[in-house]
Amino acid sequence: MKHQPLAEIFGFPFINLGKNAERFRKFKLCPFANVVPNCTKDKARNPLGVCSIFEGKEPVIVCPIRFRQNWIIAEDAANFFFEKDSRWTTLTEVRLPDKYGKVSGKHRCGHRSL
């Protein structure tokens, strides 16, 4: 039998069948600082809810919202790019205009120094 690739579904390991995991799956909730309580990956009404998949034996994040957990990546990025003791914040979405000024897409999790 082929190994299934899902590592996390709606924020919990696929093997977790506990009450909280089942609640998050039932209501399609996102525990990773999404702008709304529900998962927004793929489709609004019936989202996939896949946060990470297995690459070999290691889980790999596939959802950009998953990177917001405890804001660790934002803090690490700020420490790398900005001077010590700089004030910084995160931007969850930044509109990307094309050369004509029309929005051509959105970039998530931008960072800037204050």
Describe this structure in words.
This protein has about 110 residues and is α+β, with helices and mostly antiparallel strands. It has one domain (about 5-114). It has two helices and six strands; from the N terminus they run ββαββαββ. The strands form two sheets. Strands 2-1-3-4 form a four-stranded antiparallel beta sheet, with helices on one face.
Outline of the structure:
The protein has 114 residues and is α+β, with helices and mostly antiparallel strands.
Residues in helices, as a percent range: 10-25%
Helix-strand string: EEHEEHEE
From the helix content, strand content and strand pairing, which structural class follows? alpha+beta
Number of helices: 2
Mean pLDDT: 83
Strand content: 25-35%
Task: Please give the order of strands in the largest beta sheet.
Answer: 2-1-3-4
| First and last CA, distance | 53 Å
- List the domain count as a whole number: 1
User: How many distinct beta strands?
Assistant: 6
The gyration radius over C-alpha positions equals 17 Å
- Given the C-alpha coordinates, what overall shape results? globular
The biggest sheet amounts to: 4 strands, antiparallel
Low-pLDDT windows of residues: 107-114
List the keywords.
17% helix; disordered C terminus; 32% strand; 2 helices; 114 residues; two-stranded antiparallel sheet; four-stranded antiparallel sheet
